[in-house]
Specification:
Elements lengths: L17 H9 L7 H10 L6 E10 L2 E9 L9 E6 L6 H13 L9 E5 L4 H6 L21 H13 L3 E9 L3 H14 L13 E5 L5 H12 L12 E2 L2 E2 L5 E4 L1 H4 L10 E7 L8 H22 L1
Parallel strand pairs: 3-4, 3-5, 5-10, 6-9
Antiparallel strand pairs: 1-2, 2-4, 6-10, 7-8
């Protein structure tokens, strides 16, 4: 170990091997229960939706059921909307926002579109409040065929098996102060790179697909969310997290090239939400409400334009 290094695992300039991953894993502690917080709430929806198990993760004897929720029966004449949360398990409002949407708003869309919702893609990360999975892999850079993330591969297979006509995919995320204090330093150490400090945007923003931009769709979501919580302003360079702001609260990434979750359906309308629960201007409850508002606004816009 190099005590002067910016992260307590590994040596500067050297990517991690198996020993470093094991050392990182030994530092992770369970802080909350996927079974109690997520599975129990999904089970309680069984009288209103179909609960669809789509796999099981087994990490050193700890097993996690991978669960999706969908409206049933599926109407082949209607388009399908996919909502995903917890791709990064530590991003709490994405998980709880997906569940709250199902509990309070989801049934309003029956007969208008088919809903497929995966509230928590990364349950091991949810319990450890971590961005990565058990293997120190970020699921949201690995939504590619036969990638290293079991969570991403299982979700790809779920979408492929659905054979639905996906109109929209909304992927729920959040940014926390630990992105700057823990996860960015850990990523740099893991990859043997230098650590570049980052500024966390104060507020909600969206990531559009630069390969399939749908700016009017993004603007509709921003308008709805702005009634709930504040929108992140650009920095002095006109950017948010190093990307040019293309509209109020909107940046773009090449989703498929980066292996990001919204690339997996081929949907016309895709977005990644980002809220900032550590802001002094918001609360965790408000962030969950913002996620629900984003889902509803995105679905409403997509259906109007379909």
């Amino acid at each position: 170990m190099n005590d002067a290094h910016f992260y307590p695992i590994g040596n500067a300039g050297e990517p991690w091997g198996a020993a470093e991953v094991a050392a990182w894993r030994s530092r992770q502690r369970r802080h909350r229960s996927y079974a109690s917080d997520v599975v129990a709430r999904i089970d309680a929806l069984a009288d209103r939706y179909e609960i669809l198990p789509y796999g099981e993760l087994d990490y050193a004897g700890e097993t996690y059921a991978q669960l999706a929720v969908r409206t049933a029966p599926v109407d082949p004449d209607l388009p399908t909307a996919l909502v995903t949360g917890g791709v990064h398990g530590y991003e709490t409002s994405g998980v709880l926002g997906a569940l709250e949407f199902l509990e309070t708003k989801g049934l309003e869309y029956i007969g208008r579109l088919n809903l497929l919702v995966v509230p928590c893609v990364s349950p091991w990360g949810y319990e450890r409040i971590n961005r990565w999975n058990y293997d120190a892999v970020d699921p949201n850079r690995n939504f590619k065929t036969e990638g290293p993330s079991q969570e991403a591969t299982a979700l790809i297979e779920l979408v492929r098996a659905a054979t639905d006509d996906f109109l929209v995919h909304i992927d729920l995320h959040e940014t926390t102060d630990t992105d700057a204090t823990e996860f960015s330093p850990a990523r740099a150490a893991r990859d043997g790179k230098s650590f570049e400090p980052e500024t966390i945007p104060d507020g909600f923003y969206l990531v559009d697909d630069s390969e399939n931009p749908q700016l009017a769709f993004q603007k509709a979501i921003i308008t709805a969310v702005e009634a709930v919580t504040h929108i992140a302003p650009p920095d002095a360079n006109g950017e948010i997290i190093g990307s040019r702001v293309v509209a109020h609260g909107v940046i773009e990434y090449p989703m498929r090239e980066l292996g990001l979750c919204p690339s997996i359906t081929g949907a016309r309308y895709t977005t990644t939400t980002e809220v900032y629960p550590d802001s002094r201007r918001t609360t965790p409850t408000e962030c969950i409400r913002a996620q629900v508002a984003a889902i509803c606004a995105g679905l409403d816009y997509a259906m109007e334009e379909a």
